[in-house]
Amino acid sequence: FTQIQWRSSLIRSCQRHSQATPELETAEGGSTTSSPFVVALTREEGKNDKLRSSLLSNERIKQLSDSSGCPVQLHELPCIEHAHGPDAENLSPTLSSSQFDYILITSPEAAKVMASAWIDTGRPKLGKVAAVGKATGETLKEFGIDVAFVPSKATAATLVKELPPSDAAIEEGRATTAFYPASAKAKQTLQKGLEERGFTVLRLNTYDTVPASWDTEQISLAQSATVACFASPSAVKAWLKNTNDLETPRALASCIGETSATACRENEWAEENIFYPEKPGVDGWTDAVVDALEHLARK
């Protein structure tokens, strides 16, 4: 079978053998049935709840299950794990001894790492905090950190364009200073873009993302997945590392935003097999997953 023939055959099989109205299924593991609608939730363990809840309540998915006779299955299959970055030990001393006009936080994990160090050092005074994305801002607020600036689009490139120079820096005739505690795998987009605008940026690689190791059961789940949900380029690369030797067709990619979608393009996903919203976020990500599932149903 070709990729299209295989999935079309599964849909026809569901329609022939369905005895009742199918329901959206969710599981932490275990084998899947012969459904063409198997969705892999690939964020770190315990961080897939928001997307799962959004998918479980989505009316388009329920309509797809009803019309096709095939259940939509959700499986948590973490692609990455977090580890200390090479500059982790310098985070607390930097927060306690230095003042910056801005603190730049670009992900929920970066928020958690920075906030934990801030609390451990006695909650020293911070500059204005800029957060990329709604989830990042919510994480900071959970730790009692106010967010002063959020770009109109949750990307580093948009933050570079929209972050205003510090009023204090302008009055004092100096460059605006920014502290960027980042993932070791984050690109240079943010710091280089701000430096080109005249900002002085200190970047510390405070954490890293590494591929998660899968057991036999998880490999089997990946083999049956027809849609994989990606929230970062690291997850894309980890998925490929763990599925490189599988002979089944590559899953369609449903991405949280254009950064992950670009990583899929760079790793040879066909453009018609990549789905992502214009603005990153769980709601748009949910739509991207449903778009991918409906694309499968049309085949």
Describe it.
The protein is α/β, with parallel strands linked by helices and 299 residues long. Mean pLDDT is 88; it is low at 1-13, 15-23 and 27-33. Helix content is 43%, strand content 18%. The chain has 13 helices and eleven strands. Strands 1-3-2-9-10-11 form a six-stranded parallel beta sheet, with helices on both faces. It has a five-stranded mixed beta sheet with strand order 4-8-7-5-6.
Structural class: alpha/beta
Q: Order of strands across the widest beta sheet?
A: 1-3-2-9-10-11
Order of helices and strands: HEEHHEEHEHEHHHEHEHEHEHEH
Characterize the biggest β-sheet.
Answer: 6 strands, parallel
Helix content: 40-55%
Query: Low-confidence runs (pLDDT<50, min 5 residues)?
Result: 1-13, 15-23, 27-33
How would the global form be characterised? elongated
Radius of gyration equals 21 Å
Number of distinct beta strands: 11
Tell me the span between the first and last alpha carbons: 13 Å
Mean pLDDT: 88
Count of DSSP helices?
13
Strand percentage, roughly? 15-25%
Short structural description:
The chain is of the alpha/beta class and 299 residues long. 43% of the residues lie in helices and 18% in strands.
Topology:
Layout: H1 3-17, E1 25-27, E2 38-41, H2 49-56, H3 59-68, E3 73-76, E4 80-84, H4 91-97, E5 102-105, H5 108-120, E6 128-131, H6 134-142, H7 156-162, H8 167-172, E7 177-183, H9 189-196, E8 200-211, H10 216-224, E9 227-230, H11 233-243, E10 252-255, H12 258-266, E11 274-275, H13 282-298
Features:
six-stranded parallel β-sheet; alpha/beta; 43% helix; 299 residues; 11 strands
